[in-house]
Design brief:
The structure holds two protein chains of two kinds. Chain A is of the alpha+beta class. Chain A has helices at 46-53, 97-108, 128-141, 152-159, 195-208, 242-245, 250-267, 278-283, 301-311, 315-320, 328-338, 341-348, 363-374, 386-390, 392-401, 413-419, 422-427; strands at 12-16, 20-25, 33-36, 39-42, 65-67, 81-83, 86-87, 90-91, 118-122, 146-151, 165-170, 175-181, 184-185, 191-193, 224-228, 237-240, 287-290, 296-299, 351-354, 380-381, 411-412. The radius of gyration of chain A is 23 Å and the shape is globular. Chain A starts with 11 loop residues before the first strand and ends with a helix. In chain B, helix 12 packs across helix 14. Chain B has helices at 4-10, 41-47, 122-129, 136-148, 153-159, 170-187, 194-203, 208-222, 226-260, 271-299, 316-324, 361-371, 383-426, 431-472, and strands at 76-82, 91-97. Chain B starts with a helix and ends with a helix. Chain B has a two-stranded antiparallel ribbon with strand order 1-2. By secondary structure, chain B is an all-alpha fold. Among the domains of chain B are: 76-111, no CATH class; 122-222, Arc Repressor Mutant, subunit A, CATH 1.10.10; 354-427 and 454-473, no CATH class. The chains are: A alpha+beta, B mainly alpha. The A-B interface holds A 1-2, 5-10, 117, 145-146, 181-182, 184, 186-189, 340-345, 376, 404-405, 407-408, 410, 412-415, 418, 429 and B 1, 83, 85-86, 88-90, 92-95, 106-109, 111-112, 148-149, 152, 154-155, 157-159, 170, 215, 218-219, 222, 229. Chain B: Residues 1-36, 424-473 are annotated as: Disordered.
Chain lengths: 429, 473
């Protein structure tokens, strides 16, 4: 037992990301519960809901009804709004967090949170107020015996088996480059931007933009009554569920359409491994894709231009948009520039690629090309297993919380009651 | 990780084999005649149970199978434990074997080590540690951060944020920290001896200037453009190529010299050649030696067994056959142990020309040269000729030996005579003169010896070239 350093105390690990919330037992290799972070809700009156929201977390007494989990936002309900409590990777709306966690732990995992120590993850740019709030929720609402909050950058490095690494994490909304040294994040070296959002916006523009773009209707299947097979590139023949159109909210529509875009990105979009080249892009085989409306087509160069947004922004785009998120090579060089000269070599030879966004077709190869161009000795660790890539942060937390040496770091309930919020900053360095 | 067996034992489930489901086939009724231990299955199936066993069958003594605890049940308990590395009374629960004692120390506590960072008093600070660049508050802060992050400098530097302080580099922080440590060690009363104290000071040694230059080098190494790197690599490859070319040229030249100006023409061997050849032979020897070691050492127990076969009995028939076919058998030397290395393969007789002993070789050569005989080149090295040459060499050797003894005795006689002369003249002359004479004699002799040794060295060389020539044949 002592040989491998593990000692399982049936701790739980909760990793909250922009797209999904992952929860599971420490020591497992995959999270038991993966639920979307977006949730649907009904409000009787907006102002009334705002009053009560923060005060009481239990669903029964809430005037608004929340729809959480796999059957939450993805089911069409009349008048259901959809929202996401996270903004730029940080929790903005804490009122929704307890129900989400409760759903994952109690409804999906069927366990009692008050019996288990809980490790929660946070992004590197998390604010002290946020992590203290999280500790408060855990101790006051879930009555956990012990709590710890760990950094996703560090956890991703641990999941890759490294104490020192440069972690490139591409999520749904945020893309970050974090230098980790000896299990600590170098906060001054952190670089992050909302790059995936830009990629998403570009993809949406490619699909729905007016000519020369496609101008495709991104209606989700929930709103389509029936459709006829359509020829290639022909206008689709389908009928809309008129009964639902009136009751569909703007936020649900936006959520559903962005999901259609994501689906398209996942199955069709890619990036050229060796940098952009018109001829090479033209020589790549186009890929077919059919939308819920029945419109189907082959996508050639445009599908490859989407991934290009991760690595290169044309001058015109930069000039027209001053708030453009930095692309990945810029983030990497920013991180390395702010690190000590001695560390650069170590970091560039320990690059850990993680996050669901990195599963983008051709991403790892292109990243390797970009990196070796400026750092010939760069070595990239990108797990081939997509589960490991998507849940890297959770996996690292699972490893950490099942180590025998870790159990002295838990913030216990007793300590929380004695020291208050200050203990979080002291313990979770 | 708990194995399936562990889970079974936790849940007190019976072993899977014990509850065979209905789907599993019924076990055949056990065969009444058991195969006795220590007899192989194939043999048993051949001789059957009825065959009486002549040999006493004993079970072979094999290593005992390790007991992995699979057979017996292990009881597990879900137990609360306390971690003594914690200050509070948090009790976590984990599964342990019931056999572990309840009051056992948590096994991971021993990994809770903290680095010892120096502390200093106000008095010490004012006496030794004043620095115009650093205030006491900032120094305190630095030591606190160093303690918090276990003196991991990159992290200390990252988290270092002294309100109102000037921005500091890692090297500034290290410099201050280590200088304070050094001063503290130096000025505090020290219990141990001086060497351990200076050693401790040495561990806190930090040269900021050197560190800065080192980092500058790293930066310049990093800032090379790809062209520069490519050029550097090209140059490196070029140098390697030139070196290789040169080596090849030299080898070829040596070969050429050896072929053209070789021993055939009677020219002396080339010095570089010798060196090279020695080197080559050396490496060959080494290689062969190591190979022999590798191959022979495992098989040494086998080798001695077949050697007696080599000594065939000399029957009359064999002798007749040998005489008819002019076969002469040489007995291997008895003193040398019979190994692979001592084995004499088929060889040309010219390889086995007798060579005079190295110690007396020059004298023998000189003696033979006096007689006008060249012993080093045998035109027809037949058996008889070689035997004659051997006899000749032996005779010459004994002659030379005799001469040496004669010389020695003659020399002794001369010395004794001179001593006698000295004794006789001692009455008339003084002591120092005798010393003079003595010295002069010794000096003469020494010169003579050096002359002969020079000559002999030359002779030896000649002999060597001659013998080399023989090897060529």
């Amino acid at each position: 037992m002592v040989n491998y350093g593990g000692d399982e105390v049936s701790a739980l690990v909760v990793d909250i990301g922009s797209s999904t919330l992952r929860a599971g037992y420490a020591g497992d290799d995959t999270p038991k519960a993966v639920i979307p972070t977006s949730y649907g809700y009904h409000t009787t009156a907006v102002d009334e809901a705002m009053d009560v929201e923060g005060s009481d977390a239990t669903q029964k007494t809430r005037p608004i009804k929340m729809y959480i989990g796999q059957n939450g936002p993805s089911l069409w309900r009349e008048g259901m709004e959809v929202t996401n409590p996270l903004v730029d990777g940080l929790i903005q709306d804490f009122s929704a967090i307890p129900p989400l966690i409760e759903h994952a732990l109690v409804d999906v995992m069927r366990c009692t949170p008050s019996e288990h120590p809980i490790l929660v993850t946070e992004p590197t740019w998390n604010t002290p107020a946020n992590r203290e709030r999280m500790a408060e929720i855990m101790f006051e609402e879930f009555q956990v015996p012990a709590f710890y909050i760990a950094n996703t950058g560090v956890l991703n490095a641990f999941a890759a088996g490294r104490g020192t690494a440069m972690v490139i994490d591409v999520g749904k909304n945020m893309c970050s480059v974090t230098p980790v040294v000896d299990g600590f994040v170098l906060r001054k070296g952190l670089a992050y931007s909302a790059l995936p959002k830009l990629v998403h916006a570009h993809a949406r523009h490619v699909l729905t933009g007016p000519p020369p773009m496609r101008g495709i209707d991104l209606l989700p299947h929930q709103l389509i009554a029936n459709k006829m097979p359509a020829d290639l590139n022909a206008p689709p023949r389908f009928s809309i569920r008129e009964d639902r159109m009136a009751g569909t909210t703007e936020s649900w529509r936006a959520w559903a359409e962005s999901r259609e875009v994501d689906e398209w990105i996942h199955s069709v979009a890619g990036v050229l491994e060796q940098g952009w080249n018109d001829q090479l892009a033209a020589s790549r085989p186009p890929k077919p894709y059919e939308f819920p409306t029945g419109y189907n087509s082959y996508f050639g160069g445009e599908r490859l231009s989407v991934g290009e947004q991760f690595f290169y922004h044309p001058q015109a785009l930069v000039a027209s948009n001053p708030n453009l998120p930095k692309h990945l090579p810029a983030l990497i060089s920013e991180t390395l520039r702010s690190c000590d000269a001695e560390l650069r070599q170590v970091l560039s030879s320990n690059v850990v690629v993680t996050g669901g966004g990195t599963l983008f077709t051709g991403f790892a190869d292109r990243l390797a090309t970009e990196l070796t161009r400026s750092f010939p000795h760069a070595k990239i660790h990108a797990p081939g297993n997509p589960i490991e890539r998507r849940y890297g942060g959770w996996l690292g937390g699972s490893i950490l919380a099942s180590l025998g040496t870790f159990h002295q770091l838990w913030i216990s309930k007793e300590e929380w009651q004695e020291h208050g919020k200050a203990i979080v900053g002291q313990r979770c360095k | 990780m708990a194995s399936a067996a562990d889970v079974r034992s936790i849940l007190s489930l019976p072993e899977p084999s014990a509850v065979a489901g209905p789907s599993q086939p019924k076990k055949q009724a056990a065969v009444s005649t058991r195969k006795p231990e220590g007899i192989s299955r194939e043999l048993y199936s051949l001789i059957g149970p009825s065959a009486p066993s002549l040999v006493t069958l004993s079970k072979p003594q094999l290593k005992q199978k390790p007991n992995l605890g699979g057979g017996s049940k292990v009881k597990w308990e879900y137990r609360a434990f306390k971690n003594s590395a914690r200050q509070d009374s948090l009790e976590l629960r984990h599964w342990v074997k019931a056999s572990t004692p309840a009051d056992e120390e948590y096994p991971f506590v021993k990994y809770n080590v903290s680095s010892n960072v120096f502390t200093y008093s106000q008095d010490e600070y004012t006496r030794f540690l004043e620095d115009k660049e650093w205030s006491k508050e900032e120094t305190d802060y630095l030591f606190q951060v160093a303690r918090d992050y276990d003196v991991r400098w990159f992290i200390v530097h990252d988290r270092y944020d002294f309100p109102g302080g000037t921005p500091r580099t890692v090297d500034d922080l290290k410099d201050r920290y280590y200088s304070v440590c050094r001063k503290l060690v130096r000025n505090r009363p020290w219990e141990g001896d001086e060497t351990s104290k200076s050693q401790l000071i040495l561990t806190y040694h930090f040269d900021k200037e050197r560190e800065l230059t080192r980092k500058k080098y790293i930066l310049s190494l990093e800032n090379r453009t790809p062209e520069q790197i490519a050029e550097e690599e090209a140059l490196f490859i070029e140098v390697k190529r030139i070196e290789q070319n040169e080596r090849r040229f030299r080898k070829e030249r040596d070969e050429l010299l050896r072929t053209i100006a070789g021993i055939e023409s009677g020219l002396p061997d080339i010095v570089e050649d010798e060196g090279l050849m020695n080197l080559a032979i050396d490496t060959k020897k080494k290689k062969r030696g190591s190979m022999a070691m590798d191959i022979d050492s495992p098989s040494t127990p086998i080798v001695p067994a077949p050697t007696p076969i080599v000594k065939r009995p000399q029957t009359a028939k064999n002798a007749a056959f040998d005489a008819a076919n002019c076969i002469i058998r040489t007995d291997p030397p008895a003193t040398i142990p019979v190994t692979k290395a001592a084995h004499q393969p088929a060889h040309l007789r010219s390889y086995k020309l007798p060579v005079p002993k190295a110690a007396v070789a020059p004298k023998i050569t000189a003696a033979l040269a006096e007689l006008g005989i060249s012993h080093s080149r045998l035109v027809m090295p037949t058996r008889d000729n070689i035997m004659q040459l051997e006899a000749l060499l032996e005779a010459t050797t004994s002659l030379v030996d005799t001469k040496r003894v004669v010389d020695k005795i003659g020399y002794d006689i001369r010395i004794l005579k001179s001593r006698l002369g000295m004794r006789e003249s001692q009455g008339a002359e003084g002591h120092p003169d005798a010393m003079d004479v003595d010295e002069g004699e010794v000096g003469d002799d020494g010169r003579a010896q050096s002359v002969t040794s020079a000559r002999s060295a030359r002779n030896r060389k000649q002999v060597r070239t001659a013998s080399k020539l023989e090897y060529r044949y």
